Amino acid sequence: MVVTLKDVARASGVHTSTVSRAFSASHLVNPETRIRVLAVANELGYRPNRAARALSTRRTGNLGVIVADIANPFFPPLIKAAQDQARARDHHVFIADTDERIDVEEEAVRSMVGQVDGLILVSPRLSDRRIRELADEVPLVVVNRRLRRLPCVLMDVGEGIRLVVGRLADLGHREIATVLGPPASWTGRAAVRAAEETAREHGVRTYRVGPHQPTEEGGAAAFDAVLDLGVTAVLAHNDLMALGLLRAARERGVAVPERLSVVGTDDTLTARHTRPALTTVAMPVEAAGRAAVDLLLRGADPEVVTLGTRPVERDSTGPAPRG
Amino acid sequence: MVVTLKDVARASGVHTSTVSRAFSASHLVNPETRIRVLAVANELGYRPNRAARALSTRRTGNLGVIVADIANPFFPPLIKAAQDQARARDHHVFIADTDERIDVEEEAVRSMVGQVDGLILVSPRLSDRRIRELADEVPLVVVNRRLRRLPCVLMDVGEGIRLVVGRLADLGHREIATVLGPPASWTGRAAVRAAEETAREHGVRTYRVGPHQPTEEGGAAAFDAVLDLGVTAVLAHNDLMALGLLRAARERGVAVPERLSVVGTDDTLTARHTRPALTTVAMPVEAAGRAAVDLLLRGADPEVVTLGTRPVERDSTGPAPRG
DNA sequence: AGGATGATTGCAAACGTTTGCATCAAACTC
DNA sequence: GAGTTTGATGCAAACGTTTGCAATCATCCT
């Protein structure tokens, strides 16, 4: 039924080890033999059994990427970039979606350990301790979370956020709210920290709302609280939440940006198509995906790659309304 | 370093086979022994080696899902639904993105054969023949493509399209364009067929534009041709392309829906947030994901599951402009 | 010429599980 | 109480590769 090395060996009159070498160590076998063996293998329709190979070599040729939510438009470009890079390095990528749930994340990780040569955890929700434990079992790199002595790829949201907040201050805003996403989000905390710091420097007051789910619904749910604060501008944890805020604003008849300026984070494709188009902070997602794969496959010493971010000003922000 | 069955066996004074059975055939081992063994295994931090298990049993506990483009918002909900269903059936899901490229699809399929117990091909671009060949190597189910004697999950776009076209006819439209996506798209062809059929019944003329890439850019690229035809309504292959049409219309100063009605397909999340909000045909993506997993794991006779679709009328469609 | 070198191949032992079969004791059957 | 079933475990052969080692043979060097 299924063709194995042994079949190919028998059919071409050599030992299985020679066939094996013809495939994976071609310099160790006579060119003529190699060609003959490959021809026979091809004719028989031989396909190497990856499980067996993995058992023997302890390498699978697969990488795992674990993300919180593929439906969140932030992740797909990162995944695709990682995939391209991995393909270029002769590896394949398995993706798992954790549904923003820590138990599912744990399970996904567990299922991948042992069938991949390395793991990329994107914005993981697991505890630092758990991640370090995992790092002992399998090579891994963490994206958007800082862990000492582990390879990390970080997007410096602070950079973009500082510029955005400065810009809002220039536009006359004196009170800004930040809408929080998952408490375990490293970037989220970094963004809030940068926002509050910059605001203080500019004599702008800040308030926090949330945490809420990092979804459109989560953003909508935060709207009333934002309104009650009486702020003139709001920074959302991501574009999805900003979308929810925009929708809620429209439903409540609050004009954006005339009465309230709304800023997202991520610059996902949809940001351009909201009504009004969303001002947001663009993240270097493709670069992050590629960097993560490189870090993983290079297998070098723990290293931190930091990538910059920049604000994209569109129509959801404007001058503060006159008091 | 890494703990194997043998280690657990030695530490708990039984044979490896007993340890193995304690895990995967617990009714064959004395309850007391089992508990002791499991305790020891747990303490030692034993994790079964999946490659070894796969080699021995020829089953991996993994399913593969292959999609054209995870960045296309049509796919993630399907993937997530499949993932949930698989998890409920004690399986894991590996995802691969083919980037809409047939060679990458071939490669992705190849890499998965042998490391999954079954494959779900969503809107595959491979030839019928190739898919049938694959079906001999690995159990598979095809989503949104009809192949005799293979298990398929189909979304009956025709149903929704017929209703939409009827509605456009009622609104006074007499000339409609369809913008084509990838020629290999089964749903695309079904949709166009349904549209043209229904149009004919209503005495409405139809034109075809394309094919173009099923992306926002593709949609924008089609706009001029649509405009030249002088039609009053256009059906896009998917929401992304409709988005592109909307953007191009705005840039060219063509009012939607006053001068041109635009209809998408898929009802992705973004459809709600375009300006104007997009009229589209909602697809039963979650149901399809679940059905595909069920078909695969049930392993029953080839079976075809057909799921209905329905139009969602929003603001991008309206009465035809008076001639 | 005689030994050293290098290229090519075969041999066989891993890799970590699962599983059919054999074994053995204890518990039944009549 | 001899024979039979039942339950629990061990034994060893798979599963399909890879790879260190040894064997063979031709070639090269001096």
Q: Any key phrases for this structure?
A:
3 domains; 12 helices; four-stranded parallel sheet; DNA-binding; 323 residues; homodimer; elongated; 12 strands; six-stranded parallel sheet; Rossmann fold; 434 Repressor (Amino-terminal Domain); alpha/beta
Concise account of the structure shown:
The first copy, chain A, has 323 residues and is an alpha/beta fold. Chain A has helices at residues 5-12, 16-24, 31-44, 50-57, 75-88, 102-112, 128-137, 157-170, 186-201, 216-229, 239-252, 285-298, and strands spanning 62-67, 92-97, 118-122, 140-143, 152-155, 175-179, 205-209, 233-236, 261-263, 280-282, 304-307, 310-312. The structure holds a DNA duplex (30 and 30 nucleotides).
How are the SSEs ordered, and which strands pair?
Two copies of one chain form a homodimer.
Chain A: H1 5-12, H2 16-24, H3 31-44, H4 50-57, E1 62-67, H5 75-88, E2 92-97, H6 102-112, E3 118-122, H7 128-137, E4 140-143, E5 152-155, H8 157-170, E6 175-179, H9 186-201, E7 205-209, H10 216-229, E8 233-236, H11 239-252, E9 261-263, E10 280-282, H12 285-298, E11 304-307, E12 310-312
Parallel strand pairs in A: 1-2, 1-3, 3-4, 4-5, 5-11, 6-7, 6-8, 8-9
Antiparallel strand pairs in A: 10-12
Chain A binds a DNA duplex (30 and 30 nucleotides) through residues 4-6, 14-18, 20-21, 24-25, 28-30, 33, 48-58.
